Amino acid sequence: MKKRDRERFRKILMEQREQLMGNAKRAMSGDIHVDPDDFPDEIDTASSEVNLQFTGRLREREQGLLTKIDEALNKIESGVYGECANCGEDIGVKRLKARPVAELCIDCKSEQEKLERRTG
User: Fold this and answer.
1) 43 and 53 housed in the same domain
2) Is the N end or the C end of the chain the one with fewer CB atoms within 10 Å?
3) 85 in Cβ contact with 102 (< 8 Å)
4) Three-state DSSP class for residue 74
5) Which parts of the chain have pLDDT scores under 70?
6) Which residues are 83's β-sheet partners?
7) Residues 24 and 67 in one domain
8) % of the chain residues with pLDDT over 70
9) Are 23 and 62 spatial neighbours (Cβ–Cβ below 8 Å)?
């Protein structure tokens, strides 16, 4: 991969990282607990709890993406960004544009998905 491409992806990854960190800061600055006395009935309480669970799942997904972004940034620094973790071939700029945190080339990812479908 060309140095110019690596720098472009580093910038993209840093922007995504900053956006996720901003989301996390906004979420943490809000009131995220449920006090049953704040709601007049059980339905309001249940609805609020469902919303909190959904928000929690989103935060978990964002944390996972943040970890992948950090790993990709480390790969850029070590000079191995864009190499398939399975076969060692180049992942390809088009795939990295679509998913900058991709760890597998399209062939290896397709094979992984086939295996996952078979094993269910």
Assistant:
1) yes
2) C
3) no
4) helix
5) 27-48, 51, 54-55
6) 90
7) yes
8) 79
9) yes
